[in-house]
Each structure stands twice: as C-alpha cells, then as structure tokens.
Amino acid sequence: MEHYGEQTASGFLHVSAESKEPYAADVLAKLHQDAEAVIARYPQKRSALLPLLHLVQSVDGYVAGRGVTFCSEVLGLSEAEVSGVATFYTQYKRHPNGDYTVGVCTNTLCAIMGGDKIWDTVSDHLGLEHDETSSDGKITLERVECNAACDFAPVVMVNWEFYDNQTPESTVQLVDDLRSGAPVKPTRGPDRQCTFKEMSRVLAGFHDGLADQGVGAGSASLAGLRVAREQGWVAPGDAGSDSGSGPVADVAPVADSALQGERDKMTDVAGASLQRAQQTEQAGE
Fold it and tell me: What are the tens digits of pLDDT across the range 177-202?
C-alpha cells in the first residue's frame, strides 16, 4: 500500500508498467464488442463510463492503466476524467485485487454483535490490513462501513454476496475455503460464489444466469411481511383496504391497472422469497 491513493500528473495511480501495456488483439476486439453493447444503452456515450470501468476490471481484475486508456478512447473522454471517476468509487480498484474481496462490516450493529472481533481475527489470520491482498492473490481484505444487512449481523460479504450471522471461526473457515478452492455458497443469493472478475462483468451489465438462484431475502428481512399477512394488513390503496376511514383516508387508491399489476407482482415475489426463506430455515433445523 506504499503508493495507494497517490496520483500522477497523467491521471494514473502508481501502477506497474505492465498495466499500461496494450491489450492483446483478441482481448481488445472482445472489449470493443462488449463496449458497443454497453454504450448502446445510453443516449450519451459518456454515461456508459461506470459500466465500462467494471468491464475493463472484469478483464484485468482492477482498473489498469490500459483500462483507463480504453475507456477514454471509446467514450471520447480524457484519461484524467476517466481516472477521476475510477478513483472516486471504492468498487473500482486501481491496483491488483484478489479473486475474492472479503468485506467485514464493522459499523455500529455488526461491531456490537462481533464484527470487530471478526475483523481482528481474520486480519491476524491472513496477515492483512484494510485493502491488502494475500500473497497467493486469492483474498483482498476490506473493512466495510455497512453491508446493508443489519438484520443478520455480524455480516461478511465476498464480492458483495452475503454471509450472514458470522463468527470469527466461521469467517476464518470461509477465507480458508476460498483460498483452497473448496466450494463456497453464499447465505443468500446464487448457489456458488463468483470471482471478482465475474462479479465485475455482471456489474458491467452482462448477466451470468445466477440472478434467480437461492433465497433473495432471508426470514429476518421479511418478518414485517409475515406479520402483515398474519394480521391481514394491506398497504393504502391495495385491494381490500379501508380507504374511507382512519389515517389512510387521504391516500388516493391506485387507479392505474398497470401500476397495480406491478405492485401485485412485487408482492408475489416478496411472498415467494418469504416461502423460500422459511423452507430454508426448516431444512436447517
């Protein structure tokens, strides 16, 4: 981390000379093909910068110097403009990243529930501090402010997939399994753990076919839905609600049938997630 965060006059961080070497012809051709598909989604080319940074990251494992050059050329931006965006968002790495970014949440609730202990244990186990990568290139360790899953604290994420209700021991086992190549499955989400490059390609907008696998929301996240169904509660404007009395009297009912259809669809999806979460819990008992 000697040069982490420093930027040169050309807009690049201190990166190896290799990272600035041109792409091989076949790699460059595939990048151009994918970039065209991404750019076509936007009315202005420059708006495609964020997904294109994920795209080059999916090739190099980080936003290398040649990745900055590629984005600037296909979007008509300066390299300084591209590098300025790449250094603003933490999901873009400006130095080689591991195959698996392990993020330990140490924000308030996770910290209280054991996140700080998890961090100390795993950091000592790997010999890594924040944003450092293991010598085998497998693990990059990060201290995360919030993994947005407080109902399953303490939470660890691997390439932004959830591992809920962790302990120091379970997290050490997790990183050891990742390093050894043992099969690893997130608590919620797909049936297998994707690599950092695979995840970057998904964030660039290319589906990997794993979106509908596993439980999307666990039972803790859906507790409110379960209680509402048990009590027969409905949202204002939903079919069967009493829109003529109480605090919902001033809420106009949903008149547009298409919008109502979308709300019904979302309710069905949430209900299906609740059912899968309950089945998963029962299977584990």
Answer: 999 999 999 998 888 999 999 999 99
Q: What angle do CA 12, 16, 20 make, to 5 degrees?
A: 60
Q: Which two tokens stand for residue 35?
A: 């970039």
Neighbours of 266 (CB within 10 A): 10
Three-state secondary structure of 47-103:
HHHHHHHHHHHHHHCCCCHHHHHHHHHHHCCCHHHHHHHHCCCCCCCCCCCCCEEEE
Give the Cα separation of 278 and 268 in Å (integer): 15
Identify whether the C-beta of residue 82 lies closer than 8 Å to the C-beta of residue 111: no
pLDDT, tens digit, 9 for 90 and up, residues 200-212: 999 999 998 888 7
Q: Which two tokens stand for residue 137?
A: 């290139």
